[in-house]
Specification:
- By secondary structure, the protein is an alpha/beta fold.
- It folds into 3 domains: 2-24 and 197-277, Helicase, Ruva Protein, domain 3, CATH 1.10.8; 30-194, Rossmann fold (3-Layer(aba) Sandwich), CATH 3.40.50.300; 292-472, no CATH class.
- The protein is 41% helix and 14% strand.
- It has 19 helices and 11 strands.
- It has a 5-stranded parallel sheet, with helices on both faces. It has a 4-stranded antiparallel sheet with strand order 8-11-9-10.
- The longest helix is centred in the middle third of the chain and has 18 residues, at 236-253.
- The radius of gyration is 25 Å and the shape is globular.
- The protein starts with a helix and ends in an 18-residue tail after the last helix.
- Residues 275-313, 317-321 and 483-490 have low confidence and may be disordered.
- One of its GO terms (molecular function) is ATP hydrolysis activity.
- InterPro entries: AAA+_ATPase, AAA_22, ExeA_AAA_ATPase_DNA-bind, P-loop_NTPase, PGBD-like_sf.
- This is AAA+ ATPase domain-containing protein.
């Protein structure tokens, strides 16, 4: 009865913040779209495994459903929602999902594998693609993962006959770093770690769900929306619970718009803490070695990746007098604080981010439209997140910025990355320049550098890549051009 009155009171047709996965409420935030782009590129590649990880409630299922909706009609899909299986149970479940008939008695791994192989070959001959999606994959046993890898050995000269999408919590990353699974890890062609929503996306998420539920006006004021983001940490599942309780509190108070008081009441009921918004990862992650990505031309004329070593002067996570700039940079990207003695540029790689570091004129640094750290002669760093800020007098010319990695950036899938580069370079050139330069990436890069005031190096260096990545997507923070309207809500 309370629920019915709650809906009628706000003029809603259905519950806007149910945690049930209703497709009509599907909202793809900037980060969900970025994850979807990475995974879609992975399915187009030649590898066998695609990986999506994220903390509980960040929307991994949302992304996977959107991904499956984009698959061609000629796709056969198998879902494994209960990963607590042994090898034989896995093979039998795959046969059941694909509709493969087999004798239930005296089944063996070999017989099931033979049945699956025959099916995959027949599907390929008919122009069909086969995809397996495994949810909660962090619970898979290493032996089961190895069995999956063996299934993906079946391939043509161009591609694998079976694609496997692994979805799980961050522990899945740890599992795949085990030595006995190194061959599987090498076959992952696309991976994405889903971070919580940013403030702007939280507001859009709340308002979108209210509109779908039939709301004809705003039901949360700006203060309440900021508090929703603060106490939910941008995690969609917490957002739903918090907003639902806040609406109920507003109904009980007989007010028509959720404000600070109702939000605080909901927070108290759910026993949420603002500190929950940044989950502590501790030593969970192994450090990657990518710092600045550059594309260079080999002797044979083929394009390849080149990873440059990290400069020794990068900010470490050991916070001394640099604590405030470092914390500001982490807050801007909604990241937890790194573990002690960690090199910053190594650490951000696990979040699909890269660093660019070098020496540039300040106006060219601003052209990147990214928050930056400026290194001072003393070795400290100055935080710059507004175009109105000027560097300190003792700035030594060095800067460091973090930018989102493009789809397909991994070494395992250079072709996808090169394709993305070509599309982006062409997008930022006028038609005349594009016709003149053709499809040579180095010529396109130089033309973009000249056209948009970047340092002209004639190659796709870290600065150009950061500029392209920051202009390609709205993911992540940008430089402020005006002063904020109001301050942080306490």
């Amino acid at each position: 009865m309370t629920t019915i009155m709650y809906l009628n009171y706000f003029g809603l047709q259905t519950e806007p913040f149910s945690i049930a996965p209703d497709p009509s409420f599907l909202y793809l935030s900037e980060r969900h779209q970025e994850a979807l782009a990475h995974l879609s590129y992975g399915l187009q590649g030649s590898g066998g495994f695609i990986l999506l990880t994220g903390e509980v409630g960040t929307g991994k299922t949302t992304v996977s459903r959107a991904l499956l909706e984009r698959l061609p009609e000629q796709t056969r899909t198998a879902f494994i929602l209960n990963p607590m299986l042994n090898e034989t149970e896995l093979l039998a479940t795959l046969c059941d999902e694909f509709g493969i008939r087999y004798a239930k008695r005296n089944i063996t791994n070999k017989r099931l594998t033979d049945k699956l192989s025959e099916f995959l070959l027949a599907a390929h001959a008919e122009g069909e693609q086969c995809v397996v999606l495994i949810d909660e994959a962090q619970h898979l046993r290493p032996q089961v993962l190895e069995q999956l890898r063996l299934l993906t050995n079946l391939e043509t000269n161009q591609s694998k006959l079976l694609r496997v999408i692994l979805i799980g919590q961050p522990e899945l990353q740890d599992l795949l770093r085990r030595r006995e699974l190194r061959q599987l890890a090498q076959r992952i062609t696309a991976r994405y770690h889903l971070l919580p929503l940013q403030q702007s996306d939280t507001e859009r998420y709340v308002n979108y769900r209210l509109q779908v539920a039939g709301a004809q006006r705003a039901l949360f004021d700006k203060t309440a929306l900021r508090l929703v983001h603060r106490f939910s940490g941008g995690i969609p599942r917490r957002l739903n619970l918090l907003c639902d309780r806040a609406l109920l509190a507003a109904y009980n108070d007989q007010v028509h718009v959720v404000g600070r008081a109702q939000l605080k009441h909901a927070v108290k009921e759910l026993e949420l803490d603002a500190g929950q918004q940044r989950p502590s990862l501790g030593g969970r992650w192994a450090m990657a070695s990518v710092v600045m990505v550059a594309l260079a031309m080999g002797a044979t004329g083929a394009w390849f990746w080149q990873h440059k070593a990290a400069p020794t002067s990068q900010p470490s996570a050991k916070l001394t007098q640099q604590e405030q700039p470092m914390r500001a940079l982490m807050r801007a990207w909604q990241l937890p604080q790194p573990a002690t003695e960690t090199t910053l540029c190594d650490w951000v790689n696990q979040y699909q981010l890269s660093c660019v570091k070098g020496r540039l004129r300040f106006d060219r640094i601003l052209a990147l439209n990214l928050p930056v750290l400026l290194q001072l002669n003393s070795g400290d760093w100055q935080w710059v997140d507004s175009a109105a800020v000027t560097p300190d007098d003792d700035w030594n010319g060095e800067f460091l910025a973090v930018f989102p990695q493009p789809p397909g950036y991994r070494l395992e899938d250079p072709q996808t990355y090169q394709s993305w580069l070509q599309d982006q370079l062409a997008h930022y050139l006028p038609a005349a320049a594009l016709a003149r330069e053709g499809d040579q990436l180095n010529a396109l890069a130089q033309a973009v550098q000249r056209q948009h005031g970047l340092p002209i190096t004639g190659e796709l260096d870290g600065v150009t890549l950061a500029w392209l990545a920051s202009h390609h997507t709205e993911l992540g923070p940008r430089l402020k051009t005006t002063s904020p309207v109001d301050g942080e809500v306490n």
